[in-house]
Amino acid sequence: MRTTVVIIDDSLGSRATLGQALKRFGFDVVGEGSSGSEAIRLAQALKPDVLFLAVGLPDLDGLTIAAQILETHALPILILSSHLDQELIQRAKEAGVMAYLVKPLREEELLPAMELAISRFEEFNALRKENADLKRILEDRKLIERAKGILMEREKISEPQAFGRIQKASMNSRRSMAEIAQAILLSEAVAGRTQ
């Protein structure tokens, strides 16, 4: 499946040149626009794999648009600018942009920049998912520990026995151990034995 791309640049010539180069490299340009509002609309409607976004747009600043799009639709964004500007580069980093390209674009730099941006984006997403998974695991462990403590106190059983009961209930009900632990904590709260 080909990588889909949307290009947002108020310069018709820049859009055409970039679009032709991308098509030569085998990318599928599915949308083009010249304003920030079009960028938002096209990103939401087309859900492209990659977005090229000019900094200077007639209605809205490209970096502000990048941050808005990334809040709702995670994708690699490559910023297009007519000049190097440290403040813009810093803002691009803060917005979550994956690459900053200076116009006029040189075709031989385009493919490496895109491949690096896509690769960095995939790595970032993998790390974000791993972080979310680790947070969930930690929260689940906390629930299970609290539930074990309740069972140990209420039933006067050892920690391995309490863990075994939660594990057995999990297997029998085909629910996660965290869900069983949550049910134990809820029953304890309903009985008025916890604060």
In short:
The protein has 195 residues and is α/β, with parallel strands linked by helices. The protein contains 7 helices and 5 strands, in the order βαβαβαβαβααα. The protein has a 5-stranded parallel β-sheet, sandwiched between helices.
CATH architecture of the largest domain: 3-Layer(aba) Sandwich
- Low-confidence spans: none
CATH superfamily of the largest domain: Response regulator
- Structural class by secondary-structure content: alpha/beta
How is the main sheet built? Answer: 5 strands, parallel
Strand order of the largest sheet: 2-1-3-4-5
Portion of residues in helices?
55-70%
**Straight-line N-to-C gap:** 55 Å
**Overall body shape:** elongated
Task: Determine the CATH topology of the largest domain.
Answer: Rossmann fold
Question: Number of helical runs?
Answer: 7
- Gyration radius, rounded: 25 Å
Give the helices and strands as they follow along the chain: EHEHEHEHEHHH
Instruction: Tell me the number of strands.
Output: 5
Account of the 3D structure:
With 195 residues, the protein is an alpha/beta fold. The chain has 2 domains: 4-105, 3-Layer(aba) Sandwich (Rossmann fold), CATH 3.40.50.2300; 134-190, Arc Repressor Mutant, subunit A (Orthogonal Bundle), CATH 1.10.10. Helices cover 63% and strands 13% of the residues. The protein has helices at residues 12-24, 36-46, 62-72, 86-95, 107-155, 159-173, 177-190; strands at residues 4-8, 28-33, 50-54, 77-81, 99-102. It has a 5-stranded parallel sheet with strand order 2-1-3-4-5, sandwiched between helices. Helix 3 links the parallel strand 3 (50-54) and strand 4 (77-81). The longest helix has 49 residues, at 107-155.
